[in-house]
Amino acid sequence: MLLLFVASGASALIYEVVWFQLLQLVIGSSAVSLGVLLGTFMGGMCAGSLLLPRAVSPRHHPLRVYALIELAIGSIGVLVLFVMPLVGRVYIAWGGEGLTGLLLRGVVAAICLLPPTLLMGATLPAIARWIETTPAGVSWLGYFYAGNIAGGVCGCLLAGFYLLRVFDTATATYVAAALNLAVGVIALALAAFTPPASRTLASVGADANVPDRRVYVVIALSGLCALAAEVIWTRQLGLLFGGSVYTFSIILAVFLLGLGAGSTAASFLCRFVVTDAAAALGVCQFLLAGAIAWTAYLVSAALPYWPIAPSISGIWFNVQLDLTRAFLALFPAAVLWGASFPFALAAAAAGRGARQDGAKLAGGVYAANTVGAIAGALGASLLLVGWIGSMHAQQLLMVISAIAGLLLLIPPAASDAGRGRFRSVVLLLAASAAVIALTLTAPPVSPWLVAFGRFAPGWVGVTDIIYVGEGVHSSVAVSRDSTGALKYHASGKVQASSEPQDMGLQRMLGHLTTLVPANPRSVLVIGYGAGVTAGAVSVDPRVEHITIAEIEPLVPQVASRYFGDFNQRVADSPKVQVRIDDGRHFIQTTDQKFDAVTTDLVDPWVKGTAALFTREFFEAARDHLNPGGIVTMFVQLYETSPEAVKSQVATFFDVFPNSVIFGNTREGRGYDMVVVGQAGPLRIDLDEIEDRLSSPGYAPVARSLREVGFQSAVQLFATYAGRPADLAEWLQGAVINRDRDLRLQYLAGLGMNLFQNDKIYADMLTNRRFPENLFVGSDKRMQALFEAGGGSRNAGP
Predict the structure, then answer these.
(1) 315 band by pLDDT with thresholds 50, 70 and 90
(2) How does 304-338 read in b/e, with b if 16+ C-beta sit within 10 Å?
(3) 518 lies in the same domain as 652
(4) How confident is the model at residue 795, as a pLDDT?
């Protein structure tokens, strides 16, 4: 049975990874959407643990009930894979903003997640009826819980490092369903020759004693602190390790491993050592105040300053290093939270006899813990971090943990007399002093961590951090170096700057978006960044309306405050409307049509951003274009691999076969690129664009281009680097990034510490030929274009 629970836990985590990935593509990846998903997933498990004892008679064989639940989970898991696209299409047709949009997101999550999660939550209560609620039996329940978590570790690593990297979501789902099938069949076989626990199947009488309700309150507070801390620490360690899919798999696996180890140890102690489980549960909560302080110190004040240079070693060495740092930071607290559940089971069962319904016991404790976990996860992600910051949020968790411990360590007032009252007062004073001391040790979030992430040690003292802010979705920083150049940081890396290579790319991206289409009246910019791309779009006199979709509310404020001199004061432009939403969700649910769509700088290795590079996303962007409209996309060449670059380009070409690439170089070497696509044949009239740039109305555009080194349209378009006909051989074997096969985030994650931009660009240029039917203009300008680009004339397609 222990092995079956391991397999069951593995399948559950595979499902969780797959379902969250697929549902985020439908309802968005904003903090609100993630809150809806997490609340629905955990809420379903909570409800399942409470409903099973009431819906299923204890006279049924527990093993047979457990087997049928596992078979049903596997069947529904496969069904969700096919139902989700249908539900997604309905949501996209009806979804939107405001309360209606939020309710629809909840409906979608409920339809897809509640049926299987209700069953997942029922597995532990179901098998609890097979076990007597004696100390030995409760200890076995703890072992089963630990085995389930151990399986979760395996499922998390299997999905994050293999199944979704090598295969796709369908294959991962089938593997999870196969595990459910195997567990169900084996459990049915065991039920055939294993008698049910006689006392359990006998008529269950009234409980001997009323349960101590303090136990349920404490385990709920324990769950609250555990999930709130996990949210905060995952966010901070994501900055430190680099926010790739591998990072999140490592963090989750280590946290789950700690929970499993703690649960195993506590289950053993409950059976052979501990006589007062309630007191042990209280001690765990009190110790957790110190464990939270330990992790807070390490994550903010110690680990970011270790002298480590990630880029000098391979990705797998960095995985080992990140595992070590994650263990050091997360394991102590996770062990104590894991130990809390078996202690709570034993404390709830104490004095109630072996004839009570084990399903009600396990279901009640599990539900209380899960309710607290839901409150902690949602509270931390949606409120605490953005409202009071990570440091104060962790201090609050220390206080809550200490209070939870004291609830069980200090006797109730009715029984507190004489010497006991004196002991309680002393304990309370000592606890208060300890908690105050611990909270004072919590350091503020490291500004270098927010700004430079995994490269923080190399930047301490080199540049000044002039702003740090923690938003709902991400943390943001602004730095200034000794030359006066400003850098905008998000997710632990430089996303934009006033340095020439970055300004060149951002201005090129914005101006190509408006210069190429015939009539760019309405433009969608996905991602605000430093506002430079949107600013370049805004100064084009033909542009009448700009919509900027930005997921983090903090970003527009920071960009307008620090980068106004570089982004044309875009925040003050009457043309601009900012929509707080992730770009994919906005473009899928809006009824607007645009003359141009552009994606500002996003890194495909950051978890979740690969959804902006899928064939389905590009198709949605194409479908929201007016006739003659274009889509432009930034392609990163640094901190990535050749395979990841090829995947981005090949996927874009797959949707826009009439595409062209322009390169942004740094000291003559490849740095990054802009891809321009149009549904129909693409033609660039050099004479017409040059005439526009020479007109008085286009003076701001011409000045903006000159500031980044482009003196004319010829120089801008001489950065031509290829199109599908040129690059067919170079792209051979490239992976097409799809919604159900987000291979790009795994390819990019493997290359996040590589700096092969020059080689990637040089290899691509070996196939470049200047096509005469792409550019049109006078012979003089055409000749100048070919000479400036260093290419040869080619009349081919």
Answers:
(1) confident
(2) beeebebeeeebeebbebbeebbebbbbbbbbbbb
(3) yes
(4) 39
